[in-house]
Amino acid sequence: MAEVSVYVAEEMRGTGIGGLLLETLVKESEENGLWTLQASIFPENAASISLHNSCGFREVGRRQLIAKMKGVWRDTLLFERRSKLVGVD
């Protein structure tokens, strides 16, 4: 199991680079025997949620007041992706 994050510079958003990065990360994780990936995403980050959903992640819960940003405690959504190739017996 691993926790993942993908950050895309503002000037590169909308170019498809985020999808390429996350798809590559998923592929590499499976090639290295990881069967579960997790990601924490702020609830209002619709682009990141959409990106993760398109790469096979699903929302599994909400963690309340888990991250502090600019002095304000924030909730995050927990997403996970289970491999269909690794860890299947």
Entry summary:
The protein is an alpha+beta fold and 89 residues long. The protein is 27% helix and 35% strand.
Structural key phrases:
single chain, 89 residues, alpha+beta, four-stranded mixed sheet, 4 strands, globular
Description:
The protein is α+β, with helices and mostly antiparallel strands and 89 residues long. The protein contains two helices and four strands; from the N terminus they run βαβαββ. A four-stranded mixed β-sheet has the order 1-2-4-3. The radius of gyration is 14 Å and the shape is globular. It starts with a strand and ends in a 7-residue tail after the last strand.
The parts where pLDDT drops under 50 for at least 5 residues are none
The biggest sheet amounts to: 4 strands, mixed
Q: What is the average of the pLDDT values?
A: 94
Number of helices: 2
Q: Which structural class fits the helix and strand makeup?
A: alpha+beta
Radius of gyration: 14 Å
Beta-strand percentage? 25-35%
Strand order of the largest sheet: 1-2-4-3
Order of helices and strands: EHEHEE
Beta strand count: 4
Helix proportion of residues, in percent? 25-40%
The span between the termini is 17 Å
Shape: globular
Write the layout of secondary structure elements.
Blueprint: E1 2-3, H1 17-31, E2 36-41, H2 46-54, E3 58-69, E4 72-82
Parallel strand pairs: 1-2
Antiparallel strand pairs: 2-4, 3-4
